[in-house]
Task: structure prediction
Amino acid sequence: MYRRERHSVTDLKVHLVCVAKYREEVFSEEELKLIEEVFHHVAKQMDFQILEINGEDEHIHALIEYPPKLSVSKIVNALKGVSSRRYGQAGFKKPHGKTALWSPSYFAVSVGGAPIETLIEYIKNQSRPRRTGLASH
Result:
């Protein structure tokens, strides 16, 4: 389904992977549940959607649909910042007793739509204008 806004129609989706600092196995079921709740809350506040989220003991995966006004880096910064703060406030221990929950890096890849080969062919096969030179007046 497309996102329809005043001046755009988009279908922007990203698969995001965030890893715990030092890739330490810190997440239990209860902790992952808190992170999921926080991610959904942040998404609502910033007007994007978490289509799917799941995790293991040292990383999480999220499938996100977002508007063109947001960048992936802004989304990631908000998700990681708020979830790290709420994680600590809930009394959960962060890796190695540090203040950060997440590694500063992340993995993001765009998903959905036609395969790249199909898009390349579609663009190559566009009908070029037949006119040549400057238009005469």
Observations:
- Residues 3-124 form a domain with the Alpha-Beta Plaits fold (CATH 3.30.70.1290).
